[in-house]
Amino acid sequence: MLQFNTAAFTIATRFTSRFLWRLNASLSTNTATIISESKNDVKLDDQIKEMMSNITVVDKQHMTFDKLKIKMCNDLNIKPIVTEKIKKAQSIQEILEIVKTSSISQDDILHILRAISIWINNNKETNSSTKINESSVQSQTKVNDTTSENSLIDAEDYFYQYYNLSTSAMIKNINKLAIAGDRNVKLLNYFFKNIIEYHELLNTKACSNLMFGMSTLNYSDERLLKKICKDFIKSKNVPGNKTNIVTIISMLKSMALVRYKNNVFINQLCDDIIKSNIKCSMSQIANILLSLATLGYHSQRVNDIIEKYIPNSEIEKFGYSTRLNLIWCFAVFKTLQNIHAESVLDEKFVTKISFIDIKNNQNLSHWLKLLNINGYAQYALNNYSGPLLNNEIVSHVTSKRSKQKTAYVEALEVTLKNMLPSTSHFNMNINTNMGFLLDAEICVDDKFNFINMNSDSKSGNFIKIALLLVDYYDMCLGDTDYQGLIKLYRHLLECKNYEVLIIPYQHFGLEDKIEKRINYLRRQLIQIFQKRRE
User: Fold this and answer.
1) At what angle are helices 363-379 and 320-333 packed, to 10 degrees?
2) Contacting residues for 13 by C-beta, under 8 A, at least 6 apart
3) What contacts 68, CB < 8 A, 6 or more positions away?
4) Would you say 24 and 186 are in contact if contact means Cβ atoms under 8 Å apart?
5) Is the pTM of this model over 0.85?
6) Residue 475: CB partners within 8 Å, gap ≥ 6?
7) pLDDT tens digits, residue range 398-426?
8) Mean pLDDT of 243-270
């Protein structure tokens, strides 16, 4: 029987000022206080342990338990690695262990505990066959209480020095951590949470400094990012406040590094650049465009900025690296012209930038961009007759996949093996010679029959479909969207006459049963087929 103490079902609403500080400090270490409607304050760590000690192993209804996990994961604002752990959990105990050992926000912890409480209440009658060993629970609780109290004391000692800091002082401390390269997650979470809760309007400098700190440490909080963008717009519109181009560049560069996309905020900044009297050099505009392209942001505003600041006649005045980045941006924006491609695919330019890259040990990034542009010139440009890359200078390299991406590609291969007649009906890990690997490709005829990829008897009516997996790091935070690089890949593949199926990680879980992944792929492929025939 899944039984809980009544304290495990209620959320704390009353705290003394001293205990509120304890809550803020201890939440950063995931041993926080959270629950109590009584006069006594109960710590979150104690609550979780109490819940765990009061849970017995029972013959659960797996269907309802799976629904609980899915609902929690869909509603939570947490990293995929934590979501996957929750989905794999076989019991409530395991979920609570994940809550204790993972870096999860207070709001998400509250959400998890509420969801579990509701689920337990709804399943009390069906899970009432066993009892709890009271003596074992009591002895374990004593040990847990002692350990938890020690943890809380340690947290108090650690965070007490920061308790009375102002918002500006906390931001300065974040920047100190960034400059020192100290990615102290506990302390950062404490600062982030307090800055969000103070509800003070951050000035433009504070916003820029916070963005810089998060991007340098590669650690961010989406709620704080949203506040930064909102406060930045409000602050810059205060009479007497002026926003310089250096601040705008810093903000956008930091957003690109933490993968945070806020279209309302970016629209506002673009309008300022177009309409205001802010003085911008061409190299500064090139930096802005690179950040926007990285985030996959494109609108008429971007076209207006390019038209205003970067005439085609001025392209060759840029330095080698800046020129290459700028023209790569044009490829992402789908505005690249023949003159642009000729400018960077010329053998003299390629030789020069290759020499610079070897000297700085940075050749891969530039080579990948050159291959992207070379592919664009070959397949996306009309009547291009300019130079193309010499493979003896720039080989057909690709970027190395992350472990997470590799796991998704392997899951896709297993899925295709079980879905298609044989392994000869699909290809995996195809080097496109455009700077990236195509995860998989298949072909279907005009009756939606899968075709052997090695067959020489393909009719002219067959449809070539590219399968492109998108994991968590290919997506933007905020206004959820693919990053610019994925959009460029898709465009290049479409120009090579592929129908492109983007497979988001949210719909292709590694923990999903293979039947579920097969059904998902079939539905998506049928949609492509039907759309093609319309």
Assistant:
1) 40
2) 37
3) 115, 116, 119
4) no
5) no
6) 259, 481, 482, 483, 504, 505
7) 988 999 999 999 999 999 999 999 999 99
8) 92
